[in-house]
Here is the input.
Amino acid sequence: MTAVEQRFREFKMPDVGEGLTEAEILKWFVAPGDTVTDGQVVCEVETAKAAVELPIPFDGVVHELRFDEGSTVDVGTPIISVDTDPGAGEAAPQAAPAEAAAEQPAAAEPEEKAGRQANLVGYGAAPASTKRRPRKPLPGLQRSAPAPSAGAAPQEPAPAPARPAPAPSSSPAPSPELNGSGRTARPLAKPPVRKLAKDLGIDLETVTPSGPDGIITREDVHAAAEAVQAARETPVAAPSTAVKAVAGRERRVPVKGVRKATAQAMVHSAFTAPHVTEFVTVDVTRTMKLVADLKQDPELSGLRVNPLLLVAKALLVAIRRNPDINATWDEDNQEIVYKDYVNLGIAAATPRGLIVPNIKDADAKTLPELASALGELVTTAREGKTTPAAMSGGTITITNVGVFGIDAGTPIINPGESAILAFGAVKLQPWVHKGEVKPRQVTTLALSFDHRLVDGELGSKVLADVAAVLERPKRLITWA
Here is the structure.
């Protein structure tokens, strides 16, 4: 490592979620010339799941911000350069790779072989090696070529045999991976997936794998087919990084961040899980009276008490009585995974789009604990501070469409889950109560479930149990 490399350290875009490949820089909190310390937040980025603040892992003075606000950056790409020894005076400018090679053709090669690029804090230096091991490609991640080390001559690539130009493709093809014989490796896919690709006219060489060990799945093929179809139907528009006005009457907004991730997840869920939705209309007058009473309870003082809290509790009771609803479908292994815990997701509308944070182990919480967790979840979501971890691992979800005055809907299941409950608006309506038509507070519940693992009987039992608890909330005690 050269002295310049030791002094000027780069902070790379980390993976702040679970397997995320990129993030958008929302805001810089520092500028060139600012002093930073280990652990200081230098920028805020938006991933496909949430907005996250990034702390820098070393001290120094900001030398350069590599990207502007609004830029989307791949994970692993340097985003800021820091001078860790500003007292040493102004460093000599780094020579371009070609210039460095011309000035020191003999000394550059040994230095490159003996050194390595600077590592992030927490990773030690690797032993020197004259031969690098081949890297296994990460599914869905396109790496940009690393910048050459300052002061080191670039390696000249060995001449490659001439190849005929590939036929044009309707979707961009990733760089081919070479096997040990120098020939292009065959894409990894199971026979049914290969047949599906053939039927849809998709070249597996152009498909980005998402399965373990780089295996192409059926979903990858369908995604590639949808991209090809969209490319055929959508006219080419001029690239844009901001809102653009068209003839003064239209606006174009780039799809990225949470909105992009939500769109992809909903399309994937809608076209892979066979959705079934059932509805029930229920008299919740007693539940609304209980909500009013609980608001006056000293045990719940200062907590968020509303109808959604009792809907959540009713769903947890229904899951305890019908535990098979709390499961997920494992397509790769052709298994149903039953969960012995409930991470209850709550769909939340935020300025960045729809997110679904979840309450961990909601089934083990008391009513005050559930109220506290629900209040914290909603507040954090509105402030845009929800972490990626809070949106991972959900098992079943509630979406409260009633706050918008909507009676019911057919909600799409959150990917990786088996069911989602929609809670409609509570309205005063004429209702037959004890043989007489009276004004009662009534709502509609809708339960969408994955028919691969939840049949009609199970789905109906769960929905009926939720309705029964909301109609007579004393069942929270008798069914506990």
The first helix runs from residue 3 to 7.
